[in-house]
Amino acid sequence: MENDDAAAERLLHDAMQSVSLYYEQRGIFQDRFEFGRRPAVVVVDFAYGWTDDAYAGGSRRLDGPVDATARLLQVARTASVPIIYTSSPWRPDSGDQAFKSAADVSTGFRAWDERACQIDDRVAPAAQDLVIEKENASAFFGTHLSAYLISHRIDTLIITGCSTSACIRATATDAKSYRFVPMIVRECVGDRSAAAHAWTLFDIQARFADVTSVDETTSYLEGLAAQQSAV
Fold first, then answer.
1. DSSP single-letter state for residue 117
2. What does the DSSP assignment read for 35-85?
């Protein structure tokens, strides 16, 4: 008997095929932006509250994306590309309850604490990197990210992190709204739900961002580094 995961995967595949055909028949969506000239990398919420499954909101599904992002960051630093991190603020005494994690109210898991908001050491920020605290899904909403990117004359935002169906989607959508080219690196983003991850990448590629591979992205960054060395 077909298990639930296999059934869900089959239904998802059929749905994506059907929608893709619909778009093709009408000649809508599915265009590509392509990389620009001046990129920055944003690492969305790769803090322990999401990467460590000791927390209710954490998932081992993110191990692969974290490792792939670590590889990407090495190349980005060689190319002197600005790197921005986001996480949630740790404010235990604040009266503002607008942001709540599932870990705050879950039993049987590690309580939401200051460590939950700290960036995972596998992708730890360097001294020159920008770390932004955000209280909403998008890395742009209520932060100075757009002003920072404009001041550095950035035209392309390379997006990594979690979760694909929430904060990654919101960040990519806002990036396009601010007229930055949003490039989501497939291997560098993840979600607690495999189905939500797959569908979101398919849907957002059609309308809001390019979904690119880590190999394609690192090759692009290596090209920038080579150009800088030749100057």
1. G
2. --SSEEEEEE--BHHHH-TTSTT--GGGHHHHHHHHHHHHHHHHTT--EEE
> String of b and e for 197-211 (b: at least 16 CB within 10 Å)?
bbbbbbebbbebbbb
Alpha carbon distances (Å) from 148 to 39, 95, 140, 217:
12, 29, 10, 22
pTM above 0.90, yes or no: no
Per-residue pLDDT tens digits for 32-67: 788 999 999 999 999 999 999 999 889 999 999 999
Asked if 54 contacts 108 with a C-beta cutoff of 8 angstroms, the reply is no
Q: Please name the residues in contact with 103: beta carbons below 8 A apart, sequence gap of 6 or more.
A: 49, 55, 56, 57, 58, 109, 110, 111, 112, 116
The rounded distance, in Å, linking the Cα atoms of 62 and 113 is 20
DSSP H stretches of helix in the chain: 4-26, 48-51, 63-78, 145-151, 169-177, 194-207, 214-230
Residue 24 lies in a domain: no
User: Does the residue 40 lie in any domain?
Assistant: yes
CATH number at residue 51: 3.40.50.850
Give the range of the structural domain holding residue 42, as residue numbers without chain letter: 35-92+99-230
Quote the number of domains for the chain.
Answer: 1
Residues recognised as catalytic: 167
Is 79 contained in some domain?
yes
Q: Is residue 220 domain-resident?
A: yes
